[in-house]
């Protein structure tokens, strides 16, 4: 059997000096050079054009927040049952669709393949609606889209993942990919294949403007004002509440948790419900901030968000946020200073580098033990 | 809902056509010469259907008027779809398998298609080896027929493995569009420095490269040329960079369905309205979908070029066709830009078959010898490359939520 890397680099017995293998040295030198080059380039741009650098940083930060919101859903579920819930990105897409229904038609919609049931809420809004109407619509959208995505996520878990929980992990993975396509199909039947504009109810009014250069808008602030409470609430839920404790216990050791009287099934469902709620709320924020959605949105966004989760350390909530913001920043810097053609290439080159040096992500993995 | 209705309409249309064919088959077959088959190959899914569904109707209309006859030959027509439902756009594997099916069916002599240049690049070589004529109503990528700025090495010869040409098109290619757009931007809009964006596809990059080449030739500074990623959520960072280059004009070569509306929205958000920083777009963006998705405010003042005559500018046979066709589809429906060109392609096909001996080889030769003085798009003939001898480039303006024709463009 070929020894694993960890075995090779295990500390040598006392008294025996071992030089690290040449490949490791080269890897470090190469990585350090690349990181140095990248830092040099960015600092150079920041000095040359501080105003544009600030602008691009804000854009990257706001986009990163969106990635972070999606990444949280992946990381929550992975942290507890070590399953990459590929359907999460598509669930997020359905969340943006629900937001569009509420803002454009003023109704909550339930897509049932060829029929869509509409429940009127009177929440249709435009940019000219009063603040109160807008607040009502956004509030309704966040609550209803979260509920909607929560139901979808829990249903998927009950139908597709639960029966496979003690089966080889690949089986559940394929089910997840399957659900991803099914949700895309639902999206396609619901709203069609074209990109759908979402009413831009939050104006792009500048908040910070210096010498005619806009640095921060109301819309950027909105992302922050909704994302931060969601994050705080999530962290509080997981760290300070009873269901959160049950979640952590289940993540740590499912059997032991069960022996302590924790209902593992209910805890896992709770995690999926939480993941769905974030997908819904995230979808509303995405719809408000970006203003366009379409049925294939979930695939690429999910891939990026999953990447962000791994980058930050999968299973780690703070890591997911950090990873999301980092990817947002990298892509904005490349769009804003490099060549937009290569943005995804650059993101993944940096991702590979980080993983080579920190295989368990920036803040470290938090996954079930003893499995 | 409207898409579903249109699908239903097309399906109904196809059913009626199929029934008519069965009826014709039962009725006789000895009333005249041989039966030959024309197929059309268009993406009949998704947002394309608004345009392509109408193209099918236009071809059926021309055929009806000719009473399914071309000279002594009885003509059958079948519409093929080169798109797949899951993406709503053309699909490489479907294009290839369609083309193979045409070659294998001896009765098929002409393929009217494709709509997308990328799909044509796959079908032309297969039909070229099989000896089937192809008349495109909408391909504008230059490299399909001739060497031009922005085309790739080995084009167009790599599409014609048999050594002889079998492909013609009734619209002018993108190199003319690039030239027309660059001259308009410099001379009429007074732009001094332009930033070019393309969607990284065969068509979009082709037209953007042609524009870049033409711009440099006439002394219009090119501040940069980049591709946008259709799946990116937004393009504000990219626009920030464009702003820093000081460009006073932007040229977009690409398709609206590649997230083009988001690009226009972010352009206006970061760089200001289209009066301040001028925006000129190639025909892939000149669609009402841009107004719907980006909003009339963001599209306001943007210009678009297209190798297609607007319905309002048609005269003679074209105007007659519009009157008749409008009755068929209903007066409340707008006639889409490429519909007229699909009708023209069907006219070319019927005309060539009528003059031929009915063999695939002779039909190809006769298509190239086309000389119709009064087709629906005016006088129509082809050069040796298969391009229209007298192509046209037109200028449009997005104004108050409408696409308004402005004038013909100089492309010399």
What's the structural blueprint in terms of helices and strands?
The complex is a heterodimer of chains A (about 375) and B (about 400).
Chain A: H1 5-8, H2 22-48, H3 50-81, H4 87-105, E1 107-112, E2 115-120, H5 131-161, H6 169-191, E3 196-197, E4 206-210, E5 213-217, H7 218-240, H8 242-252, H9 254-259, H10 264-290, E6 292-293, H11 297-312, H12 317-337, H13 343-357
Antiparallel strand pairs in A: 1-2, 3-6, 4-5
Helix pairs in contact in A: 2-3, 3-7, 3-10, 3-11, 3-12, 4-5, 4-6, 4-10, 4-11, 5-10, 7-8, 7-10, 8-10, 11-12, 12-13
Chain B: H1 2-27, E1 35-42, H2 49-65, E2 69-70, E3 73-81, H3 92-104, E4 108-113, H4 117-130, E5 133-136, E6 167-169, H5 174-187, E7 193-198, H6 202-217, E8 221-227, H7 236-245, E9 249-253, H8 260-271, E10 278-281, H9 288-294, H10 296-299, E11 303-306, H11 317-329, H12 339-355, H13 360-368, E12 371-375, E13 378-381, E14 394-399, E15 402-408
Parallel strand pairs in B: 1-3, 1-4, 4-5, 5-6, 7-8, 7-9, 9-10, 10-11
Antiparallel strand pairs in B: 2-3, 11-14, 12-13, 14-15
Helix pairs in contact in B: 1-2, 2-12, 3-4, 5-6, 7-8, 8-9, 12-13
What do these coordinates show?
The complex is a heterodimer of chains A (371) and B (412). With 371 residues, chain A is mainly α. Helix content of chain A is 69%, strand content 7%. Chain A has a single domain, classed as ABC transporter involved in vitamin B12 uptake, BtuC, CATH 1.10.3470. Chain A has helices spanning 5-8, 22-48, 50-81, 87-105, 131-161, 169-191, 218-240, 242-252, 254-259, 264-290, 297-312, 317-337, 343-357, and strands spanning 107-112, 115-120, 196-197, 206-210, 213-217, 292-293. In chain A, helix 3 crosses helix 11 (297-312) and helix 4 (87-105) runs antiparallel to helix 5. The two termini of chain A are 22 Å apart. In chain B, helix 4 (117-130) links the parallel strand 4 (108-113) and strand 5 (133-136). The longest helix of chain B is centred in the first third of the chain and has 26 residues, at 2-27. In chain B, 55% of the residues are buried. A seven-stranded mixed sheet of chain B has the order 8-7-9-10-11-14-15, with helices on one face. Chain B has two domains: 2-172 and 312-381, 3-Layer(aba) Sandwich (Rossmann fold); 174-306 and 393-408, Rossmann fold (3-Layer(aba) Sandwich). Classes of the chains: A mainly alpha (371), B alpha/beta (412).
């Amino acid at each position: 059997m070929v020894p694993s890397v960890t075995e090779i680099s295990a500390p040598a017995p006392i008294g025996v000096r071992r030089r690290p293998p040449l490949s490791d040295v080269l890897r470090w030198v190469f990585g350090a050079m690349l990181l140095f080059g990248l830092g040099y380039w960015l600092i150079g741009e920041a000095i040359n054009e501080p105003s544009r650098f600030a602008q691009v940083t804000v854009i990257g930060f706001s986009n990163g927040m969106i990635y972070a919101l999606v990444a949280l859903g992946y990381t929550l579920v992975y942290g507890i049952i070590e399953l990459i819930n590929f359907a999460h990105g598509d669930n997020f897409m359905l969340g943006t669709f629900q937001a569009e229904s509420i803002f454009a038609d003023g109704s909550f919609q339930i897509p049932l393949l060829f029929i869509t049931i509409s429940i009127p809420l009177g929440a249709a809004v435009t940019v000219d609606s009063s603040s109160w109407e807008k607040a009502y619509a956004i509030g309704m959208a966040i609550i209803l889209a979260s509920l909607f995505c929560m139901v979808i996520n829990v249903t998927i878990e009950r139908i597709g993942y639960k029966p496979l929980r003690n089966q080889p992990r690949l089986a559940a993975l394929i089910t997840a990919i399957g659900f991803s396509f099914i949700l895309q199909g639902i999206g396609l039947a619901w709203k069609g294949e074209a990109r759908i504009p979402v009413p831009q109810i939050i104006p792009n009014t500048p908040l910070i403007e210096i010498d005619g250069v806009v640095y921060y808008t109301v819309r950027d602030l909105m992302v922050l004002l909704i994302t931060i409470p969601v994050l705080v609430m999530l962290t509080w839920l997981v760290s300070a509440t009873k269901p959160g404790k049950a979640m952590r216990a289940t993540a740590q050791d499912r059997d032991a948790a069960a022996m302590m009287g924790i209902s593992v099934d209910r805890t896992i469902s709770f995690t999926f419900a939480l993941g769905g709620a974030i997908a819904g709320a995230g979808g509303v924020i995405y719809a408000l901030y970006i203003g366009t959605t379409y049925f294939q949105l979930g695939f690429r966004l999910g891939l990026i968000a999953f990447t962000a989760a791994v980058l930050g350390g999968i299973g780690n909530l703070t890591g997911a946020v950090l990873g999301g913001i980092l990817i947002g920043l990298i892509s904005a810097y490349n769009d804003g200073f490099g060549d937009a053609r290569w943005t995804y290439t650059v993101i993944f080159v940096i991702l590979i580098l980080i993983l080579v040096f920190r295989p368990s992500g920036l803040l470290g993995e938090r996954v079930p033990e003893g499995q | 809902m409207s898409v579903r209705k249109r699908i239903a309409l097309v399906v109904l249309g196809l059913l009626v056509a199929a029934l008519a064919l069965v009826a014709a088959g039962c009725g006789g077959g000895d009333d005249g010469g041989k039966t030959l088959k024309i197929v059309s190959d268009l993406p009949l899914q998704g947002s394309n259907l608004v345009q392509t569904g109408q193209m099918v109707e236009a071809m059926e209309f021309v055929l009806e008027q000719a009473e399914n006859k071309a000279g002594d030959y009885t003509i059958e027509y079948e519409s093929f779809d080169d798109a797949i439902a899951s993406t709503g756009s053309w699909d490489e594997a479907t294009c290839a398998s369609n083309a193979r099916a045409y070659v294998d069916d001896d009765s098929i002599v002409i393929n009217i298609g494709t709509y997308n240049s990328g799909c044509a690049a796959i079908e032309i070589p297969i039909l070229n080896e099989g000896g089937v004529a192809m008349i495109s109503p909408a391909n504008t990528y230059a490299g399909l027929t001739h060497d031009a700025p922005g085309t790739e090495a080995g084009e167009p010869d790599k599409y014609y493995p048999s050594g002889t040409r079998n492909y013609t098109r009734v619209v002018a290619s993108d190199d003319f569009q690039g030239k027309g757009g660059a001259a308009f931007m410099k001379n009429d809009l007074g732009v001094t420095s332009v930033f070019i964006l393309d969607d990284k596809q065969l068509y979009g990059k082709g037209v953007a490269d042609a524009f870049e080449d033409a711009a440099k030739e006439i002394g219009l500074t090119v501040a940069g040329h980049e591709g946008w990623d259709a799946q990116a959520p937004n393009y504000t960072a990219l626009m920030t960079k464009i702003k820093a280059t000081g460009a006073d004009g932007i040229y977009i070569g690409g398709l609206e369905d590649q997230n083009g509306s988001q690009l226009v929205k972010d352009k206006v958000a970061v760089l200001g309205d289209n009066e301040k920083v001028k925006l000129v777009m190639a025909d892939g963006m000149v669609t009402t979908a841009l107004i719907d998705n980006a909003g009339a405010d963001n599209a306001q003042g943007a210009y678009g070029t297209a190798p297609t005559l607007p319905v309002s500018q048609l005269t003679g046979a074209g105007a007659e066709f519009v009157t008749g066709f409008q009755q068929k589809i209903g007066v409340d429906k707008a006639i889409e830009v490429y519909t007229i060109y699909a009708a023209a392609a069907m006219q070319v096909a019927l005309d060539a078959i009528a003059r031929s001996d009915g063999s695939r080889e002779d039909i190809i030769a006769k298509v190239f010898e086309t000389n119709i003085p009064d087709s629906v798009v005016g006088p129509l003939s082809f050069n040796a490359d298969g391009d229209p001898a007298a192509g046209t480039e037109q200028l449009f303006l997005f104004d108050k939520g409408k696409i308004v024709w402005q004038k013909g463009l100089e492309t010399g």
